[in-house]
Amino acid sequence: MGSFWQIKIYRSKFIAYTISVVTIGLALGIMTCAVLMYQWIEGARAEAISTFARIENELQYDTDRIEAYMQRIYSNDRLMTDVRFFLGNTAEGYQTSRLQNSQYNEPLVSFPEDMRAFLHSSMKGDLTQVSLHTDSDSNVVRFDDNGNPSFLFRVPNTDEIFRESMEKGFVYRKKLSDPNQISRQIGEFRFLIGSDPLFRKVQGYKLDIAAAISDSGEVYMISGMDHGTKEMALKATEEKRSSGYSSLGGMKNVFFMTFTSTKFDYRFVFLVDLSHLMHQKAGILFAVVGIVLLAMISVLLLIAYNMRDDARFLRHIIHSIKRVKTADFTSSFPAPYRRNEYGMIARELDDMVHELDKHIRTEYLLKLKQQETEMKALQHQINPHFLYNTLESIRSTALLHRDVDTADAIATLGSLYRDIVHKDNIISIGEELELLQKFLSIMELKYPGRFYYQINVDEALLRLQTVKFWMQPLAENFFVHGFNSSSEFNLLVVNGWEEDGRFILEFMDNGKCIPEARLEEVRQHLICRDDTPVRSIGLRNVHTRLHFFYGEALAMEIENNEEAGVKITVRITKG
Fold this sequence. Notes:
Blueprint: H1 2-5, H2 8-75, H3 77-86, H4 91-100, H5 111-120, E1 127-133, E2 137-143, E3 149-156, E4 169-178, E5 181-194, H6 195-200, E6 209-214, E7 219-223, H7 230-237, E8 243-247, E9 253-260, E10 266-273, H8 274-280, H9 282-325, H10 337-380, H11 385-401, H12 405-422, E11 426-428, H13 429-446, E12 451-457, H14 459-462, E13 465-467, H15 471-482, E14 490-499, E15 502-509, H16 516-527, H17 537-550, E16 554-560, E17 566-573
Parallel strand pairs: 12-14
Antiparallel strand pairs: 1-2, 1-5, 2-3, 4-5, 6-7, 6-10, 8-9, 9-10, 11-13, 14-15, 15-17, 16-17
């Protein structure tokens, strides 16, 4: 160390490095301990949540079983009769009533035994007491840990055994109604779910301090009784927060969580005594502190080692300068390769960025060209039979009628195809509707007196840009698949309007509906992105061309009308 400690600049740097390393080491140590504490507390939080969920699930299961047993009573006349004998009777009166009303060919039904077999067993010992009350007194069935029943008869309703407390458990009340007159109450059941058997099921959970607290302030300690923490649990319930850190007086700093039951009037309180937690995890914390100290010492030794080499390097430079002063130009000092290496890396990075830029631009332009080529290819796939069919219709009309309508039809057809050939690929909705209207005029000539059309499109849509010649395939589908040649009224309606930030175009007809299986197939093929051949090539091409132009703003749907025909809806979200 003496080789650099004698040089002021390195001495100051070493002091600065030492202060920085110690500061960073202490910060890292504190942060590590804080992270560990946070993880331990989060683990305890998860355990508390799991414990409360288990308790609530057990209570839900118990109440569900009680509800099921009440249904069992109402559905079993003999069991209901025995319950009524038990209600408000003495032990002798209960047995006498049962014997007097028994039949020699039927076994006796015992309400307590049935309840023990069906209810107590399924609730896994949670049910500790059942009482059946009249207005003044009650008959009680108690179960010990082995499920053996004991009985108390004609106990006043004001007796201490009916006082509800957290130490005893949770009381679930159910009215007993007359099965012949359900609105008349003849008694009341009180099922006591014992705290001891219920909370014994969660004592295997890793809980530091846990308690159940009733709304009246009664406390049942589930765990942590050795902490003397009833007062701590009660004080935690006074917090307005449901979880957090709190100081409960003196050195008692805790993390607490409170949960409110949805089934009964109690709160589950969970506490982590931070000082107790640190005492439990002292070994881990000491290990962290030791590792941080070892790391700080190692870093300082490494700094001292590097500074010693730097000091030797500086002494070598000074020695070289003195040699130059004496005209000794034989240098043993290494060349500054670092700057050249960094410059090389910078040049390589610059070249790499340049190459990436060229690559991205090339790929982007190729993608645009590919999409443009695909759009043109799709546009050229539009059904070529349209021209031949239309010309054949005009020829047949001319041969049969020899009227001036033929000349008008030929003029309309010529105008239509001139527009198709000479208009740009991108036109307005208004221009696209003009092309559609010319096509529909020709169809009126082909089906005189049997085909009609209406176009009702708001002006807001007419200026919207779109691709050319996509409406005609939608209309042509109607004539190919939905037109009813035997009907005197075939109608095609085009509606368009603006709503809620989007434009909507509807193409509706009153022709034939599409079978549901075929309709689902068309929908799947409509959104398919691969090149699999499909029967509905017209709709598929229209959707693909519009999707190329509008992107994700386009939505296209096809469905049957309620009465007849098909509706195709095109939605374009404003962008």
